[in-house]
Design goal:
Oligomer: single chain
Helix content: 40-55%
Strand order of the largest sheet: 5-6-4-7
Shape: globular
Largest sheet: 4 strands, antiparallel
Protein name: PaaX family transcriptional regulator
Order of helices and strands: HEHHEEHEHEEHEHHHH
InterPro entries: WH-like_DNA-bd_sf
Radius of gyration: 21 Å
Amino acid sequence: MQQAIVKKPVARKLLLKLLGSRENIQMNAASAVRVGALFGISENNIRVTLTRLQSMQLITLVERGYYALGENGKQFAKEISQWRNAEDSLMSWGNDWVVAQTNTLPKSDKKQQRTNERALKLVGMRKLVSDMYIRPNNILDGAKGVRGKLQTLGLSKKVMVFSATDFEDKMHNKAMELWRQDDLEGLYRNGCEEIEQSLKHLHSLPLEEATKESYVVGDSALYRLVFDPLLPSPLVDVALRKRYRDLVKHYDDVGAEIWHRFLSKN
């Protein structure tokens, strides 16, 4: 398989993702430096990053000089790991919508505006008209459940979140087209192929190469799933999405075992 071309990961993201990939993972400074070296990240960069993450309480120093996730880091890991059980939060769709009305927000608070936009994107909402974002109402607890997810992600509580039905035909048709540009089914198919190809040869690679590839392929897959809008049928092929998610779970387990061997290597 042709190696995926990716940017060198940021040290902060790399270390937090590895420490948060499973419960109770620990990593000493020497192992962190070896991890950085896999991706061309300097020892100085890794050590400075460890110090900064500790000062932000994202990681903490435990016995024998090993680092583990701190309280703030555990919250980060919890948000990232939600993809594993995301399908469990879905319900059947009755052709209604969850709406977020943002016209009550001041445009001057750019930081809050960026947080709002990220929260809406993570929950799969798209702009229907000015100051109105929607998604299919197929998440458990409906508008209440979506509102809770959005506010946990930092959406301003000034945003009104509610359910809506009976859009006029023109508006309904526009809503049904909002996610087409994402080509989600293409992403699922390509993702399945990438993972299957990697699994065919991953265990035959030298440990360092297998460790690096499992991170690169796995990180790409997790990014897709974190931002997956979890649409219902007929907006997306739900069976294809489930096949992709099951493959990613398997690959994540395989990658975790490879990383455990790499981090345990003297």
